[in-house]
Write a structure and sequence with these properties.
The complex is a heterodimer of chains A (254) and B (657). Helices cover 35% and strands 13% of the residues of chain A. Chain A is of the alpha+beta class and 254 residues long. Chain A has two domains: 100 residues, Ubiquitin-like (UB roll); 133 residues, Orthogonal Bundle (Fumarate Reductase Iron-sulfur Protein, Chain B, domain 2), CATH 1.10.1060. In chain A, the strands form two sheets. A five-stranded mixed beta sheet of chain A has the order 2-1-5-3-4. In chain A, strands 6-7 form a two-stranded antiparallel ribbon. In chain A, β6 and β7 form a beta hairpin. In chain A, α2 runs antiparallel to α6, α5 packs antiparallel against α6 and α6 crosses α8. The longest helix of chain A is centred in the last third of the chain and has 19 residues. In chain A, 53% of the residues are buried. Chain B is of the alpha+beta class and 657 residues long. Chain B folds into three domains: 313 residues, FAD/NAD(P)-binding domain (3-Layer(bba) Sandwich); 152 residues, Flavocytochrome C3, Chain A, domain 1 (Alpha-Beta Complex); 138 residues, Methane Monooxygenase Hydroxylase, Chain G, domain 1 (Up-down Bundle). In chain B, 38% of the residues lie in helices and 15% in strands. Chain B is globular, with a radius of gyration of 24 Å. Chain B starts with 11 loop residues before the first helix and ends in a 14-residue tail after the last strand. Classes of the chains: A alpha+beta (254), B alpha+beta (657). At the A-B interface, α1, α2 and α3 of A face α3, α5, α6, α11 and α12 of B.
Amino acid sequence: MSGNMNLTLKVWRQKSNKDKGNFEEFKVNDISPDMSFLEMFDVLNEQLISKGNEPIAFDHDCREGICGMCSMFINGRPHGPKEGITTCQLHMRSFADGDTIIVEPWRANAFPVIKDLVVDRSAFDRIVSAGGFVSVNTGNAQDGNAIPISKNDADIAFAAAACIGCGACVAACKNASAMLFVSAKINQLAHLPQGQPERMQRARAMVHQMDKEGFGACTNTGACSAECPKEISLVNIAAMNCEFVKANVVDSHE
Amino acid sequence: MSLNSNIPEGKLEEKWIKYKSTVPLVNPSNKRNLEVLIIGSGLAGASAAASLAELGYKVKCFCFQDSPRRAHSIAAQGGINAAKNYQNDGDSIYRLFYDTIKGGDYRAREANVYRLAEISPNIIDQCVAQGVPFAREYGGMLSNRSFGGTQVQRTFYAAGQTGQQLLLGAYSALQRQIGMGNVQMYNRHEMLEIVKIEGKARGIIARNLITGELERHFGHAVLICSGGYGNVFYLSTNAMGSNATAAWKAHKSGAYFGNPCFTQIHPTCIPVSGDHQSKLTLMSESLRNDGRIWVPKKSNDNRNPNEIPEEERDYYLERRYPAFGNLVPRDVASRAAKERCDAGFGVGSSKMAVYLDFKFNMMRYGRVEANKMGIENPSENEILKLGKDVIKEKYGNLFDMYMQITGENPYETPMRIYPAVHYTMGGLWVDYNLMTTVPGLYSLGEANFSDHGANRLGASALMQGLADGYFVIPYTIGAYLANEISVKPESTDHQAFVDAENSVKETIEKLLSINGTKSVDHYHKKLGKVMWDKCGMARNAKGLQEAIDEIKVIRNEFWQNLRVTGKANEFNPELEKAGRVADFLELGELMCIDALHRNESCGGHFREESQTNEGEALRNDQEFSYVAAWEYSQNNWKLHKEELKFENIKIAQRSYK
């Protein structure tokens, strides 16, 4: 089934990290409103291949909004115009026939471009390696019901843990700050009894690594949370600041 | 070579316990010199990598995505089973074992499944300890729900994002080991060949997907944890990148492939909307707890579902299977939906869909809420509103997802659903140790064939992936590596590495040099259509024979008329896809060969020639009570059989009536 939308796309092309990039313009016709945004890109890439041109590289995998791999900056907003969804969940019915759509990669020093719309987000992995875990080796666990956790705490931890690590928060932020991502993990574990023994150490280590990766500072604008596809709350950042200050006070007394 | 499943002697419930206490151990200083390569970073790969590194082994882990956290385990929605019996509803290890064997239609190995059930409670404990935020009751205890094919509540969950939370738990354990230097992680790397030296797996060739460089890695053992091959059908609930390449290379290096035709078609997915469709989206099985499945009693009924009165609806699962109703296993529910649609009772514009309706349970919940709040004589609308809130809390993210994709509001009108390819029970044949027929080459999680027989029960995939990685491989790998402690790491200049790398290079050059006219997706779609039409929910001898011939034709065309843009030594997603589809084009043929040879119906494998008068799957235990393990040699396959012995379960015709 083909549709009746005709669109103009201005897409960022960049051969590699060493090259300078530029916008390239494409026309796509007969787009169905039932297509997802990425399926529209599939159509465009098929067109490019059939003409012998190189398709546009973009990251994507699960296409159901959970893996966090897709990462397009569409008309000036990470994951496009709709709230609470990822690029792969965005459908063409959110656009109108004749629209011009501008598509860019995430832009941040800590997320260097690999090719076209693909960026390197391994900085996030290194932040998790610094402390985003509970140090419990396999086989050390007690019965799952041995420590009751109030539904409220479990729900708060879950809401923070829903982060998919896509990096939209960084892309949305004028300072390219990673505070929302980092604070979500810190706050998840701070709300659970399992996270208590390493609570202070975790806040210090993760924030330290975040700074080392070259992410910017937070100025409480809130764009991160507004653009987050999982609607991670800004409250996490406030809570993280608390954790971090406490951790440093404790540190100076140790 | 004869197949030895290496199942320990002794009574079923004592096998694993005895095994653990007698398996040879490797002392800590020797572990530091033993290198393990792990392909894949999903639940099986990440949990194995973390656990083996904790034990002291030197681990390298490879994934094709930009981070191990992206593995497709992340998308599992509904939950994870464990025989905790927290609900006091009669659950036990034996019952989980029994349900899994029966659910798999008596085509799984008893000893493996029993071990899985035995380990299941430990998994929950381990995940809770990592800080996985499972759903809780107000009293602070873990919450459970029901899944298909069982009559107890043993499924643990985190809203509709259980896979995500479990994977992030395993990922955090893995990242911790990476941070400590115990695991070297290779993101954006794809394994393209197994290196064998003197018959043993000794390494891999991997392609750095950013630079296109080929890399040689030595290992004393190699673990294939690369997931399933559902994408052979092109359209499936798998991620776009999910592929069979690692498993297929292992197979072509000598690992037998077990039951390749056993694929799971999940009953509740969002129907196909058009040719542009790139993937299908699952609506969790947990929705069947609260949704009732129906079609109109009149064929070709085009009325709005809300206008079809109760007496004109056919709740066909409740009608056909009164004991399990909407919670029959997946294979049964899928076939029943196909039967109704084929008979002309389907709904929606394509008529290839059935309704999943929440109204009844919204009203039920609404009444309970109204009572709790002390509202006297609530109106129907008030009840419905209260009920909607309950449903929203339970499944909100799934309803939102449905709304995004279809543009329809499932709180107002019933969901339209249809079956879609979801999971593959078949995979690399492994013994009790999870070792393939190649010494030192293991397979874990969905990539192996071991625990689900001919049909997997819901919420059991997460259980198996984590059981294999956290609790099985840390023991069983010792049985092999204890004899390898004196083996020094082989130089990657060894001729076996050179040969393997050259063969990979050759394939890549060939793919790039065809310079034809059709894209990779073109051939992938063609293959998918043949597989879905002829090796999908219903199969017959004629169709399968045709499929085998058609796949050969598509494969020939592929190698003659494919167009892959770009170069080998750069980031080139088209080239990656081409390699994967080349492998699917071989695997698809083997799946059809296997489906053709298994002239019986069992679980997800429905041969039209073999059914009861009521249209249920009819097994043939006399002839087919075995695992089909296929050996590859020179573009041909040889069948080996592992007899299945049922000593603890009385084998019976599966009934959910």
